[in-house]
Amino acid sequence: MTLRVVDLFCGGGGLSKGLTDAGLNVVAAFDNWGPALSFYRENMPDHPAIQCDVSDLETIVPQIEKYCPDIIAGGPPCQDFSSAGKRNEGKRANLTVTFAQIIQHIKPAYFIMENVERAKRASAFSEAISIFKACGYGISQAVLNASLCGVPQNRKRMIVFGEMGGKDNVLTTVYRRHQSQKPMTLRDYFGDSLGVEYYYRHPRSYARRGIFSIDEPSPTVRGVNRPVPDGYPGHPGDPVPVTSDLRPLTTRERSMIQTFPKDWKLSGTKSALEQVVGNAVPCRLAKFVGECVLDYLGRKNFYESECNLPVQLTLFEQAAIYKA
User: What angle do CA 209, 212, 216 make, to 5 degrees?
Assistant: First the structure.
């Protein structure tokens, strides 16, 4: 029987698409932002995408329960944790606690929560983990680099997997077995189809470089995409100087770096589309996690015997200990 999944804070559907491709059955998705839901519905019309205030527990819990999920998955909005945001904890950070409270009310067999790497240092994240543990979940917590998971992008994300009554750290070995030993570059993914060797990605400040090669993974795709400004001073880390033909990547190209299918429709305003694309879970990262979960569930006895590593370490720290 295929496991039933409900996707919370679904955005444009990167998590839903990836988990579906992994072989899971996404039976419903919820979000409260109209442009993201329009993007989701247009490209995955067979998946119910429901507009709802996910932070309203009295409303959302009964709606989720109707779908009898085996897994509740979701990426609570991360701007208040992100290095691209204000680096403080506000209302959006509290949605991580809301996700944990939904799990507490419904108690699915499993859950998958995605967030930015720096979330692990936030009090809201710690509170969420405490709620999960109090409910009886075993927790696998790891920072995954998407470039090692089939995505041509250097995007690090915290993935928390919970299993009711399970052990901690059960996915550590699974992740290591599945991930690549070499980061995926844009050339690996696109070949020469982009028609450029170098491109511009607007930095958060001019203390960071803005020019990148297709022979490396893309930096994290964000919700902002700007042309080269006249005042860009260059940076010592830029592989080439600014030239007249240097360009940023298009919205379509950026969506494909997020591993959305190249034939997906991109309807809506440019600013909204850039936000939908930049906020998404890369489809192939979600597929990677889904496949790892299914591999674990199919070989629990084997993996449970190899899971005695500290839960707070990153995947890379855990791997170093394992190899020592």
Answer: 125
| Separation CA 13–CA 23 (nearest Å) | 15
- Residue carrying structure tokens 């997997």: 161
pLDDT tens-place string over residues 256-285: 999 999 999 999 999 999 999 999 999 999
User: 246-275: buried (b, 16+ CB within 10 Å) or exposed (e) per residue?
Assistant: bebbebebbbbbbbbeeebebebeeebbbb
d(CA 199, CA 205) in angstroms, rounded, equals: 17
Residues designated catalytic: 78
Counting Cβ atoms within 10 Å, is residue 104 exposed (0-12), middle (13-18) or buried (19+)? middle
Separation of alpha carbons 276 and 35, rounded Å: 8
CA angle 88, 94, 95 (to 5 degrees): 120
CA-to-CA distance for 201 and 225, rounded, in angstroms? 7
Of 79 and 29, more confident: 29
Q: What is the phi/psi pair of residue 161, to 5°?
A: -110, 135
82 three-state secondary structure: coil
DSSP SS3 for 141: strand
CA separation for the pair 64, 85 (Å, rounded) = 30
The 8-class DSSP code of residue 139 comes to: E
Predicted TM-score (pTM) of the model is 0.91
Residue 51: name the closest of 106, 8, 105, 114 by CA: 8
Closest CA to 274 of 244, 300, 253, 305: 253
Distance separating alpha carbons of residues 271 and 69, to the nearest angstrom: 34
